[in-house]
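Please check this today:
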Amino acid sequence: MSVTYRFHEAPQFRVLSERQIKMVYQATLECLQRTGVNVHNATARALLADAGAHVDGIRVWIPPHIIQDAIASNPRSFTLWGRPSGQTRAQESRHRLQIVPDRTYFGAGPTCTYFIDPHTGERRRSRRGDPALAALVCDALDHMDYVMGLGLIHDVPPQLSPVYEFAEMVANTAKPVLPWAYSVDNVSDIYDIGLAVAGSEEALRARPFFALFATFQSPLVQTDEDVANAFWAAEHGIPVVFVGGGTAGTTAPVTGAAALVISLAGALTSLAIVQLKVRGAAVCIGGIPQAMDMRTGRPSYGAPEMSLYSAAVADVTRYLDLPFMGTAGASASKVLDLQAAIESTFQVVISGLSGATLIHDVGFLDCAEIGSLESLIMNDEIISMARWLMRGIEISDDTLALDLIDRVGPAGEFASRKETARLCRTEVWNPHLMDRQTWASWEAQGSLTMKERIKGRLERILSSHKPPDLPDDAAEKIEAVLQAAEARLASAKGT
């Protein structure tokens, strides 16, 4: 009987045993029932009270059945699509993301205060045009699956920064986009931009190409604005990604186990609130539990604890059959150096092997203070290597190659065989940036360092890559949304 396993058994990284997973989950349920959560949104408090929670002022004690029902009502899987571009449906569908546990996608992060200027190399405040550059680079890179803006625009009215950011991103990538928002007005404007691209509410609901990125606060706080934003998105058929997480030693107890409880309590509360508002709404929960560096008072963004804790949360969400957003490709280093490469590689490998669904913050430096396009380029190569590892080894009659080994025999060679030519590209990873040349060949081609090769690739992308065009009239409609938002803000200031 022949043995044929066509599907790879991918290697996996697990932190928690099944017993530990159950202990963390049960502790989270007890925390929500025993300690409760501050919920600042009145509608959410009313929904929780009607479902059986005890409410006293803004404090809400949540019984386990509310969380369990929310987990049961959340879709086991949902889809984010490539944005409409006038191409065929098949071309647009190549950027489709199936949001389900153990399918892993990488993307940039949001809201960095500073940006590394790709032309001068200076660290400066993020400004208009930076999210467009981030989207363009993500669009060109094979292993960036979705787009976030990598910068908080400072040269527009701050209340409208998320709206301008989304407008720039959708114009410069065909990949799914994760915008964020300060207010319901922001979410409404982002939705109107989505309508300008999709063409109709029906088309956008059927094939959403963006999901709202919302946050919860630690320890155990749901803000009025984030909940209201999530409600508005869910009511209009837009998926919601709810992310937060405690910092061990400050916004969570210093132990890793307690940081998991704080992070999960916030995420599961977010899920429950949205499901009570719109049962069956598509929600991905996330967490960035991390440790505090007690010497500096800053979160240890590049330290192993964040990868360890995120992988542990992924263990729990897999047990609950929920998609999870984690973090990787970030560093505490101020520049793209060896520290950035080491921290980014460690995070990408651990997060990828953990099976997190959406992995964001690729391209962050200085503990999420700086967005770097060069870091995106470097991490794309790291992710490519990690994905080769994540796919495992195919074991089949074809790949075991016993007939070929028998034909060649002892002391033979395989380089000239047709099977080698047929399979070499699928069996051996080939780099974009890593150097494998001889010393003489490396010298002949300019003795370029990795940093120089990264910079060269970035320059080529910025000078030559063209994302698919927006649909007809979409650019004009987007500009009209921005002008209307500016007018609304000016009117509000005048009253």
